[in-house]
Structure prediction request, 284 residues.
Amino acid sequence: MSSTCPPMTVAAPAVQPYGFGLFSVAQWPVEADPHWRCGVQWEPYACGPARLYPIDQCAEGEPPEKQVEEGTPLVEATPLVVYGGYHCKLPGRTVPADIEDRARQSLALGEQRAVEEAVWTGAAGNSPWLASPDATVLNAAETPGAGDALKAIGAIAALEAYLGATYGGLGVIHVPRGAVPALAFYQQIVRDGSVLRTVLGTPVAAYGGSPNTGPAGEPAPAGTAWAYATGPVAIRRGEVLVTPTPVPAAGFDRKTNQVHLLAEREYVVGWDCLLGAALMDISC
Prediction:
């Protein structure tokens, strides 16, 4: 039976991108030179160790020489592209700008999750990534199973100890969003404005775009989550590009009366010189 009172079309509820993800803990350098889109490299400050020097006022002869390595190994990060879009029938659209807005919103509301997936897995051909064979596994077993998972307190302790022993500054801890309730229950994270932090002040990124995989690419066993520790994260990104232009005429297919637009932008995500991993028990 056809309705005699069809539903009225209204505006969709306002949506905000989720908080406490990777974007909340990242640094956002702005480059005047557009060549960052080819990838970047830098010489880190805090990856080299400071050393002790014994003093013996009574020793004879020349004192031992203070040893300093030549330079610091460069850190590299490669580019990736994140895109969203909108595909619809053009007839009946009285406000063409709404089509472009929906393409842009598709990107704006999904790009953090997409970037997090790329950073966790390297799925966009990007490097570095978290679930990498290069990660130092901090559990007792090199390829831990559910029985080898550290309790939430032990996992954060292991990641903080790793950061303290291998890096001269404040790093970042990366976890799936599903691990946050357990970390909060055990009082391992606190809210600091728009950032989650450990008791020691280390920022924690809660990933929505995380497949919860380990350094061998294996999914975490049920009731567990992989957590990673890195140096500070730097994200470079370009402006949003909407194609084709002009909008929406260039995207209109007269054969189908449909319009198709893409909104995309380039990213380069990298961090300083270290990568630790711990399998964590998130049961309560």
About this structure: The mean pLDDT is 90. The longest helix spans residues 97-121. The first strand starts at residue 40 and ends at 42.
